[in-house]
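Handout, section 4.2: multi-component inputs.
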Amino acid sequence: MTLLETSFGSNVKVMNLDNVHALVRRRLGDLGVMEGSVISLRKAMPFGGPCTIEIKGQWIAIRRKDAGSILVEAV
Amino acid sequence: MMKLALTGNPNTGKTSLFNMLTDSYEYVGNWAGVTIEKKVGMLNNKRGQLIDLPGIYSLSPLSRDEGVTTLYLLDETPSMLLNVVDASQLERNLHLTIQLLEYGRPVVLALNMIDVANKRGLNIDVQLLAQQIGIPIVPVIARTGYGCDVLLETSMQASDDSGSATSSRRFDYGPVLEEAIGKLEAMLPKELTSARWLALQLLEGNIPVLQKLRQHVDPVRLQTLYDETEKLVQEQANGKKLADYIRDRRAAVIQGWLQHAVLETKEQRTTLSERIDAIVMNKFLGIPVFLAFMYLTFKLTFDWFGTPLSDGLDSLLNGFVRDSLSSFLDSVGAAAFIKAVLLDGVISGVGGVLVFVPQIFMLFLIISFIEDSGYMARIATVMDKLLEGVGLNGKAFIPMIIGFGCNVPGIMAARTIEQPKERLLTILLTPLMSCSARLSVYSLFVGTFFEKNQALIVLSLYVLGVVVALVLAKLFSFTLAKEEESMFIVEMPPYRVPQWRTLSRSTWEKGKGFVRKAGTFIFGGSVVIWMLGYSGFSGWNVPMNESFLQSVGSLISPIMEPLGFGNWQAGAALITGFLAKEVVVSTMGIIYAAPTEAGLEGAITQFFTPLQAYSFMVFILLYVPCLATVGVIRSETKSAKWTWFSVIYALIVAYIIAFIIYRAGLLLGFH
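Output:
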């Protein structure tokens, strides 16, 4: 399933980031989001705007399209 | 001379530490990307220099500001590296630390925001961690100065001990990579220091390193080696990209370090930041909260604080100061000419601008608050969807907000935008943000014509600037290179209550430019404009209507006639306003030879109707970036073509919009 299909606040494990925009993937990696990390979806802005994710107390905003390309699995 | 380089992830407090350790002051904020240039300061103990570098996550740069740091490390040899890490985000911060250790200069770790980490329930055994990593670690709180003396002492020690020998740290990257690194090292000329570091950076895809190595090694050989290694790694680690593989190896090293040294003693609970975000980032409230905040800003600037203070300053300048200067000049028997220059030129010109200092400082105070509190990254997120629609991303809003203060730093802040096209668009459109200099023109006109609705009328001009920028962004992104895919990612720092010291300091740093400009540029400009108004074809001391200033203004006044302000006075003010927008006010002050602002306001009511005044303000908002802004556009785009473009499109757009507003206003029965 993708990150967007998870419920707000529930912890999931990142399985695959291959379809995420290349530069966004690099920056996510810099911020510690890589395959195997545990993250959670926190908030979504209206009108299809960005959503925020949380990893180890750090909050990051990315576009919904990119969040929809992050494949995750329940932990 | 010792050279200490400050390095670390964005928003870890490098600049705060810089301000504590040196005798200089630099601009700080709570968002990633505040520092975009390298800054040099003298250490408090006078034994060396401290170099503040833009924040980076890794040494491979993604954006222009990050490239500054990489190039610094490539081209210079600092005595030691002072690595600032955020104690509550140790794990990701240490990826950079590993790269710095590999670089080969002594590293000292400043464990910043140790108080925040403790509050969040992280218990860090500093001694054990230092033992694990093998470098000195000093816990500090840069905002208060806690631990800074120890840090300075430790850093001095480290760079003294190092001498000239480099001691590059080796981490094991597995047989495939180690072989590739060995081959690369052999290719590099002997005089290059830290060859292993260069080899690793190249394999990670570091573009500046690649460019440097191409000067020494055949590019084809480099590419072949890179491709071969990537293929081998992918075979071995089921399809992993080379850079990701390297990152994984480093993550394993970091895990080992942290395993025993860091203990989480408390369960994560809802933080204050989350509770604030529940409101300001709320699905429905996010945008209204932002707009309300902006409205409050204008209320504070105009109705509640700024204007009353400005009025007080005005009566002081034009009453007491003018009278005392006048009687002083009389008593020393100054020539009539000197008296006229000082009273009608300098006091009218410079004084006309200086009276707006309170309003401008109020605005800068609020901008500093946005920057220091952590709200900036939230605004970028809330606005992203809107900006994506016009071919930009939410981060473009940061330069625009800074541009409300002054366009010059706003345009420079566009360096943090990763995609070149989005960066160019942001540079071209930031001048449409109404800066504090334009505020002085509005203040004059709204005070005269729209006394009841000052804040609202000014807000409408700010909104107009933003709307025009968005429409043009859409238009330009169709025509400019459009193949580039838009992207957006921003880290959201925890909120902080801004310290009064930081706020006042950063407000003053921003505002002093305005005051200094009044004392130099506007002072000189006022004298020149006064001279142009004092002289004419028939000689000196001519009536204003026969002066050179009138001749110059008359050249363009026919063109402005359709916009409602075809008098030569407006024309002259527009031409001189290109130097700096406040000069519009100075020029009008001198032309109408108005001793007090009340007099100036009285004078302009004879030349403008309210609708014409609004049309004039719209034109001032949009017409051309000021001289300083044009200069910074030139240096940031490195293109004469785009610089000319920024001036010409603005003139055309200003003309069209002022025309529409004036004509539509007339049709609707306004006057």
